[in-house]
Specification:
It is built from 6 helices and 9 strands. The chain has a 7-stranded mixed β-sheet. Strands 1-2 form a two-stranded antiparallel ribbon.
Length: 224
């Protein structure tokens, strides 16, 4: 279906670039989950960026989407989604929708996805792009993502596409038993991907790749 931002680049070129991205940026860097690789190979990233960036949709880095925000580097999307171990029956919460790219990837893997965006203009774009792209199982909410969505909790998996000073307690509380939270934790410039697991009422954490995300702004993140 047509996207809200309609790219004008040759679709054959974009398809070739998407396939190359999966091979060179993901598979060759160690992404192994075939379901994640298939989802990344299916979702058209060009639909989630402005037309002037469509030709670079599969570049190995983030791209601006307005309001001082970016769509994440494809490798970081794949690394975080793979760490979640998303199952077809999962209910997933994403914090930091942007224009909806990662939510679309999650929508290919999970039963239901809720995604939060604090910028109203981006939340509107994400809603329209996801709807026009056929992702009826993805729901966009404009709110403070650092506090999650208690009215729709609990969630099997939660992913935060913004850098936080610590793992927000509200998000941990909204995980089911044996749930997984992936959140970049550090300062406003550089973070490390933190994987939080809840099992038997005990919280365990492990640290993964270094990364650099826009700040998680909110009551349980950074102050504006």
């Amino acid at each position: 279906m047509a996207a809200f931002w309609k790219p004008t680049v040759d679709p054959n070129y974009l398809a070739e670039q998407r396939a190359h991205m999966v091979k060179a940026q993901l598979r060759e860097r160690g992404i192994q989950d075939e379901r994640v690789l298939a989802a990344m190979g299916k979702v058209p990233r060009e639909a989630f960026v402005a037309p002037e960036h469509a030709r670079d949709a599969y570049a190995d880095g983030p791209l601006p989407i307005g309001s001082g925000q970016t769509v994440s580097q494809p490798y970081m999307v794949a690394a975080m989604v793979e760490a979640l171990q998303v199952q077809p029956t999962d209910r997933v919460l994403e914090v930091g929708a942007g224009t909806g790219y990662e939510a679309a990837v999650l929508g290919e893997l999970a039963a239901e996805v809720w995604t939060i965006e604090r910028h109203a203009d981006l939340a509107d774009k994400a809603t329209r792009i996801l709807a026009e792209s056929g992702y009826a199982n993805v729901h966009v909410v404009c709110a403070d993502g650092s506090q999650g969505l208690p009215e729709h909790a609990p969630f099997d998996k939660i992913v935060v596409a913004a850098g936080a000073p610590t793992a927000p307690p509200s998000l941990i509380a909204q995980l089911i038993e044996n749930g997984i939270l992936a959140v970049p934790v550090g300062n406003r410039v550089e973070q490390q991907l933190l994987i939080v697991r809840k099992s038997g009422g005990v919280i365990s954490t492990s640290r993964h790749v270094l990364c650099s995300f826009v700040p998680l702004v909110g009551a349980e993140g950074w102050q504006p």
